Amino acid sequence: MSRPLVALLTDFGLEDHYVGVVKSVILGMAPDAPLVDLSHAVPPQDVRAGAFLLMQSVEYLPRGAIILAVVDPGVGSGRRALAVQADGLTLVGPDNGLVSWALARLARLGRCAVAAERGQLRLGDGCQAVALDRPRHWLPRVSRTFHGRDVFAPVVGRLAGGTPLAELGSSADRIVALPWPVPRSVGAGAIETAVVHVDRFGNLITGFEPGRDPVERVELAGRTIAGLSRHYVRQADLIALIGSGGLMEVAAPGGSAAATLGVGVGAPVRVWVARPSGDAPEPRVSSE
Amino acid sequence: MSRPLVALLTDFGLEDHYVGVVKSVILGMAPDAPLVDLSHAVPPQDVRAGAFLLMQSVEYLPRGAIILAVVDPGVGSGRRALAVQADGLTLVGPDNGLVSWALARLARLGRCAVAAERGQLRLGDGCQAVALDRPRHWLPRVSRTFHGRDVFAPVVGRLAGGTPLAELGSSADRIVALPWPVPRSVGAGAIETAVVHVDRFGNLITGFEPGRDPVERVELAGRTIAGLSRHYVRQADLIALIGSGGLMEVAAPGGSAAATLGVGVGAPVRVWVARPSGDAPEPRVSSE
Amino acid sequence: MSRPLVALLTDFGLEDHYVGVVKSVILGMAPDAPLVDLSHAVPPQDVRAGAFLLMQSVEYLPRGAIILAVVDPGVGSGRRALAVQADGLTLVGPDNGLVSWALARLARLGRCAVAAERGQLRLGDGCQAVALDRPRHWLPRVSRTFHGRDVFAPVVGRLAGGTPLAELGSSADRIVALPWPVPRSVGAGAIETAVVHVDRFGNLITGFEPGRDPVERVELAGRTIAGLSRHYVRQADLIALIGSGGLMEVAAPGGSAAATLGVGVGAPVRVWVARPSGDAPEPRVSSE
User: Fold this and answer.
1) Cα–Cα distance for residue pair A70/A76, rounded to 1 Å
2) Predicted ipTM?
3) Which of B58, B230, B244 has the highest number of chain A CBs within 10 A, making it the mutation to test binding with A?
4) pLDDT tens, position by position, for chain C (288 residues)?
5) Beta strand B81-86 pairing with B127-131
6) Does the pTM of the predicted model rise above 0.90?
């Protein structure tokens, strides 16, 4: 039988022992599980940044993978803890929206069904969740500040060892959803969006997913870029292109667009498409 | 038979090839060993910082785990190299105190016995060590500057492959110990301690381990904090609480206490407990 | 049968999901492959920096290892993609010189034969390569910007799963070579070289590989260092010694030579040897 891959995404950083201890707990329970780090450099307590990286990763995880996702400003308070399953993937983490974009992404890919409802995702076909409310599956001593180690790691260890989801807690049918910065039509073929992530190379990834209508120009930080380029190879000091996750991004070939333009997450971006359909692209989180 | 987990703690950083080469040597000898990084971001040659992270990790490692621990300012000089075993864990590294707090922690947990003696730990029941003095177990060519790769990695590889400890070197009954910054009573329920670690979140972890007596107030960097909070959720700009390793820490919910207060490792901290016992908490390294 | 180790070297950083996704794709195809990170902190698009780390790592990889090496400023353009095999190791990456120093190193060790020819390495005995030109071995959808995930990871996954090299593309007999900054004799026992890498500790690693002739003195940044030291232990504020990769380096024991001297990669270094042979050391890339 194949051993499930365990992927990890946290804001724990790599300076301290936190990630190593989480992994040690998991491997103490499931010694054969291959571990993969998605990122541990999520800015401290930045749930949206973590949600974005999860969303960009989730379709590349092999079926059966278990994802420990912990960016958890509410640790120790009353916030719920979750394990959510969709089409062979299991996401484990706090119920603060961290996994919501990944789940919506899976829904867009037709791998499960979810519906956006007043700040929540209602889980539909192919999707199930439990609230992690059974301390017998956790470490014997649970600290107030490190549920990654004391609650989430042992739950992941049990899942990797074959414990069924339903055994780990009470059934849940809704999870907290983060609002996606949906691009909106502002008339005459113009669409307003924003920078949603800046990557290591200084590429400015936007919330806009180009569709069939060709992009005519992009405005950002007072600069105008004509059309989309096909790759990063130097053609101009600033280009727009479709990034590896399907979203439009702005790049400075051989340099950093973020540094060149002096902008970051949240910066407004305006896009003109050639034959405007009049509608903004379908918002991610309402897809089912 | 289960394959032993190998955990690694170094000051090698992740920029260079050093950690990757150490792992390659280990896996060349023990291809099935699961590897876990505790941290490689120990500040260069900061033995105490490494010792602290090891101490906080050691009880979460599964039985059978082997720890390669290399923060080694004396590499290439006459300093001894060690492998120390305690209750199913094996620590491998230079004899400069790096593993001493972890060993003392295991002793406090009743997993082995050690005694502090003039800057050393004398190993007692359940504890054994060897000096790594048999070059036949190392790489054929040993550099002067990279014993992590040339000495410690192959020794860990052999241990992971089943070579018994006694085969790897001459028996040793004492190891170098770092002094723990023991909190000391300064009368009238007041205890003096210090910041021993600043983590990624800017939490200031102190050397004080709260006991049964309730903490009344904490003084640090000219600020006074009343009592202990139970978690990080925002109640005040600055709180004190029991951290995930059992030690008292000072945190700024949603921010960095280190940045807020402008202090770091070594900063003095004073604690008042409600019904002072008159004694400081039992020092860690003398516990057996 | 032993599972081949997969080693990874990229400029993807650890902040984003890029490395995790690459690993997920590999493990989706070869679930049992042990993964080792050589480095992901190569400065963005710095092919030489990546080539250096690969060259320093390659001899410590166990036979059978597969190396994914991606520093790829030309991604999406016409640059060729390669898999190169030499004495049981397979290097997979863009054909931009990234793997050339590693291959030349293997040749110097007698593990394969290569010859430098007008900016290329011609592959000789024990060395074979293919151009990765068969999309059926890649992910179904290939982005323009992330061949690490879409091309190189699946090729590595197939190799790890046992697919023979020749199946992955058309045979290639030359690869792009980076020029090695060969130390050159400047008369009277003097040799000119340069800093080729600065490591985490601030050690300045030069292109000069000391031979039988003793080094008399080293000049760098207006400072003169007499002779070579044997290890890092503090003897002087600045020392020169033979580093763990066989190259001469300049170090500041207990500190950073790079910070002390304010120099970095490319800084000129002059070396005087006692009994000059009149020849500079054999250049690496022409060794066969």
Assistant:
1) 13
2) 0.93
3) B244
4) 468 999 999 999 999 999 999 999 999 999 999 999 999 999 999 999 999 999 999 999 999 999 999 999 988 888 999 999 999 999 999 999 999 999 999 999 999 999 999 899 999 999 999 999 999 999 999 998 999 999 999 999 999 999 999 999 999 999 999 998 778 888 888 999 999 999 999 999 999 999 888 999 999 999 999 999 987 776 778 999 999 999 999 999 889 999 999 999 999 999 999 864 545 544 443 332
5) antiparallel
6) yes
Under a CB-based contact definition with an 8 Å cutoff, are residues C232 and B75 in contact?
yes
Tokens matching residue C122: 């011609």
Q: Which of A14, A16, A37, A200 should be substituted to probe chain B, the one whose Cβ sees the most B Cβ atoms within 10 Å?
A: A16
Nearest to A65 by CA among A2, A153, A143, A151: A2
Of B38, B200, B232, the CB nearest to A76: B232
Instruction: Determine the straight-line distance between the first and last CA of chain B, rounded to whole angstroms.
Output: 32
Contacts of C176 (CB under 8 A, 6+ apart): C95, C96, C97, C100, C119, C120, C121
Instruction: At C71, list the tokens.
Output: 């520093």
Residue with tokens 């329920």: B189
User: Rounded to whole angstroms, what are the CA distances from A48 to A70, A141, C17, C200?
Assistant: 12, 30, 14, 32
Q: How many residues are there in chain A?
A: 288
Task: Name the token pair of A76.
Answer: 């120790």
DSSP A261-285: HT--TT-EEEEEESS--SSPPPPGG
Q: If we measure between CA atoms, which residue out of A9, A1, A5, A57 comes closest to residue A34?
A: A5
If DSSP states are collapsed to H, E and C, what string results for B112-168? CCEEEECCEEEECCCEEEEECCCHHHCCCCCCCCCHHHHHHHHHHHHHHCCCCHHHH
Chain A CB contacts of C16 below 8 Å: 39, 53, 199-200
